[in-house]
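Lab notebook page, bench 4
Experiment: in silico fold of construct C2
Operator: M.H.
Input chain length: 106 residues
Purpose: comparison with the prior construct
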Amino acid sequence: MLESLKGLGKPVDDRVIDPKIDKFFKANAKGVSIKGMEWEDVYQEIVIRWLTALPNFDPKKSSLYRYAQIIARSTTIDLIKHVSRQKRGNGVNDISLDELAEKEIL
């Protein structure tokens, strides 16, 4: 699969990002606003996910571009969820029951 993609784009650790897909990833990252992240951070997360998911690509199920859309969308959703979880956790102090027992609060 990867052999058939050689020469289509820039190499990244023997893997290739098609220029059309790379442009899509950048546009997707620039079009999303996630608190605490620059568009480059979002782009990097999408590319990392793409490179790890690429070996699972099955051309019988979808086109490479459609697969890239799915990866970009799911990565963006995961990042938004992650930031939301962090936001809900602000102001919460992590303390174990053992620490409370040592302080004889329990």
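Observations: Residues 1-8 have pLDDT under 50 and may be disordered. The helical segments are 2-5, 19-30, 39-53, 64-89, 97-102.
Next step: discuss at group meeting.
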